[in-house]
Write a structure and sequence with these properties.
The protein is α+β, with helices and mostly antiparallel strands. It has three domains: 97 residues, no CATH class; 96 residues, Phosphorylase Kinase, domain 1, CATH 3.30.200; 166 residues, Orthogonal Bundle (Phosphatidylinositol 3-kinase Catalytic Subunit, Chain A, Domain 5), CATH 1.10.1070. The chain has 13 helices and 15 strands. The protein is globular and about 60 Å long.
Length: 405
């Protein structure tokens, strides 16, 4: 196996990742003049070294079901992150590709710095949009060699949507959409995520186009549009980095951060931090109200939008409280705790003191939460009656704690 990997930004060779015994190094190409490979990897520092596998690449590797399928199908060791990166490096999140040096494989994306993304035309999948059972979706990468990487523990596949046939088609690489069948261990997950994303949209949070469809066997599948690629054939790629990458910590540390660190990350990296802090505050409030206790570091990302670095559209929004019965109110600590949140902690401490928001900004955010018809939206969703009742009860309870009823 090669000890040198070529790192591309779009179609341009930006540098090389080197494995030197038990150490790793990255070197920019002397002729490279494009954007930094990762935020914080300034071109002025031509070489970087690590004693462990670099966190920025570690966070690009598959997790959960995809990770297990990758190890089995590619016959890789669980600790062989170098081999795992080679296996999926052609189709990673964001605008970076990783290919073995000396091979004839070419990157499939390109980057146009400063160019704003053009949104795809909206799709409206119907009842016959999915010609696969949930089992076929879950088992797909157990039968086909995994060639792309998507983080997250849930099973998922990459897909395109045929407008002519009005159907999703699974693809091994370069998909426009992600399909997430409901895991057997978490009944109602697809319905839960569909509802929570719709509630976020109603609150005014930027979310990708997404929705619920039925698999061939009648089980629920959540679909979502990718926001890190656009254009004909998905060839245009966009910088997208999660908080583990930006903070330079391994993916296994994703639950060890805190919300205060996210604020500092936004202040340091975003082009318009004042606006992004309002959006961050809004999402933290919304996630708490809707019982999302799993917004760890990998569920917060920054996206390059034209010439701006800002919060990526929200993703992985679920009410984990009713899905898993987990008592933790937040995956990340706030003022040293993950439970016992109240109005003082969320609004006075986090909103005013940490995010630095004024009364007008906070009031606009809380008014957006109050404007949602929670009852109608929740009971009008595909959630079961029991889960709908639990979901609404939790929202009512937490809106009451915030004194927003």
């Amino acid at each position: 196996m090669t000890d040198t990997l070529n790192i591309f930004v779009g179609e341009t060779l930006a540098g090389k990742l080197l494995r030197e015994g038990g150490h790793y190094a990255f070197e920019y190409e002397t002729s490279y003049e494009g954007p930094p490979v990762f935020l914080g990897w300034d071109l002025a520092k031509s070489r970087r070294e690590w004693n462990t596998f670099p966190a920025a690449f570690d966070s690009l590797l598959p997790e959960g079901v995809l990770f297990d399928q990758l190890l089995i199908k590619r016959k890789l060791d669980r600790g062989d992150k170098w081999g795992q990166l080679i296996a999926v490096g052609l189709d990673l999140t964001g605008f970076v590709s990783v290919l073995p040096a000396g091979g004839d494989q070419k990157p499939i994306g390109k980057v146009t710095p400063g160019q704003k993304a053009t949104k795809r035309a909206a799709i409206h999948p119907g009842d016959d949009a999915l010609a696969y059972t949930a089992t076929e979706l879950v088992a797909y990468h157990g039968k086909h060699r995994l060639k792309m990487s998507l983080s997250g523990m849930q099973p998922k596949v990459s897909a395109v949507f045929s407008r002519k046939e009005q159907q999703f088609k699974i693809v091994e690489t370069n998909g426009s959409y992600i399909l997430k069948p409901t895991p057997q261990a978490f009944p109602g997950a697809a319905e839960n995520e569909t509802l929570t994303m719709e509630l976020a949209r109603q609150v005014g949070i930027d979310v990708p186009r997404c929705g619920w469809i039925s698999a061939k066997d009648g089980s629920g599948v959540f679909w979502i549009e990718r926001f890190d690629r656009w254009g004909t054939g998905n060839r245009q790629r966009v910088r997208c980095e999660d908080a583990c990458q930006i903070l330079d910590v391994p993916a296994s540390w994703k639950y060890l951060g805190n919300l205060e660190t996210l604020v500092r990350m936004v202040e340091a990296q975003c082009s318009n931090p004042r606006l992004q802090l309002v959006r961050l505050f809004q999402r933290v409030l919304f996630c708490w109200v809707t019982g999302n206790g799993d917004m760890h570091l990998k569920n917060w990302s920054l996206l390059e939008n034209g010439k701006l670095i800002e919060l990526a559209p929200a993703y992985d929004l679920l009410n984990t409280r009713i899905l898993t019965d987990d008592d933790e109110e937040s995956a990340l600590e706030l003022d040293g705790r993950k439970t016992g949140f109240d109005r003082s902690l969320l609004i006075d401490y986090f909103g005013r003191e940490i995010c630095g928001l004024n009364d007008r900004m906070i009031e606009k955010t809380t008014q957006a939460l109050q404007s949602v018809n929670w009852d109608l939206t929740i009971h009008g969703s595909q959630l079961s009656v029991d889960d709908s009742i639990k979901y609404l009860q939790l929202v009512d309870e937490r809106m009451g704690i915030l004194k927003l009823t």
